[in-house]
Design brief:
By secondary structure, the chain is α+β, with helices and mostly antiparallel strands. Among the domains are: 146 residues, no CATH class; 74 residues, Leucine-rich Repeat Variant (Alpha Horseshoe). Helices cover 35% and strands 11% of the residues. The strands form four sheets. A four-stranded antiparallel β-sheet has the order 1-2-7-4, with helices on both faces. It has a two-stranded parallel sheet with strand order 3-10. A two-stranded antiparallel ribbon has the order 5-6. The longest helix is centred in the middle third of the chain and has 19 residues.
Length: 376
Amino acid sequence: MSLESKIKDFSKGIGIDLIGITSAEPFNDVERVFIERIKKGYYRSFNYNSERVKFICNPKKILPDAKSIISIALSYNVHVEEIENKLRENSNNTLLKDQKNKGVVNSYNIYSNERETGSKENTGIISKFALGIDYHEILRDKLEILADFIKKISLKNFKYKILVDTGPMVDRAVAFRAGIGQYGKNCCIITKRFGSWIFLGEMITNLELQSDKSNFEDCGDCDLCIRACPTQAIISPYIIDTRKCISHLTQKKGEIPMNLLEKMGRRIYGCDICQDVCPYNKEAEFTKESDFLPILQTGKDLELSKLININESDYNKLFSSSVITWIGRNTLRRNAIIASGNIADLNAIDSLLKVYKDDDEIIRKYADWAIKKIKK
């Protein structure tokens, strides 16, 4: 059995859903497109410049003697019945059965889908990817276990660098070139088994491994994701203006353009709209990763009126194991304030009035907006 086959075979045993290998050659095509879009302002809030882009598009800038990249994907497509059971019974996480979604794309995610949400109307909507334990640690742990295995079976001086989302690498470009999946028109990587409900990570290594082939299949005439986006952030196929993307808006600090506030609805962290409508996600398999089952409870914990003035202690207690902790308390409060205004939540008035004394000018600004909107 080849080294590549041993690596892939072992990865299945530790719960890695998909794995692919590509070379560590620079992503020159991605670099050119990236720089062009930066010039157009699409990535303005990320503070990218040409030097930064050259760095993240060249694996050898990260590991000088890099020869290959191992790309992995984990599905976070949780089963609606498992979610409902956990919420009703507060049961312990259990491994999911290997089942397939039977085409009900709009009913399985009680958090992210506003039309069929199982949560109360005065609660905030959280994207599916943020329901479970912080995925950065889960992917990193699996990559470390894989690295330990490679150390044992490789006779060479094995060197590696693990990167998960926040690291300096173009994850989606790596995944595409490694054959993990194709690009959707919403720029998500779409896989045959798990749709686009996946987390990505990679290991840059000095081992010279046989590369897998990428297989690009475009989305044809389908433009559901483009038409569904409330802010028209997908300005054309495969091009997103992140300044308008609701998922990005809920995670960025500071001000949000006033003309986009109403389009955010009740979303307080992330947005799944373009994925909810994607046909590839209708037959997506469910995850077997128990850590991605919801750790957050609906109901009073996520009531907008309570999130608006949540203190640091309660914020840390509620979100300490979640990726939501990355955005910080005031960003979540800002989002809850905007959401309360969008649904004209009368229960939030008292909480919003208290915000007038807040030290944060931005918090005060959106509270004023929300109160005026509720009182209309």
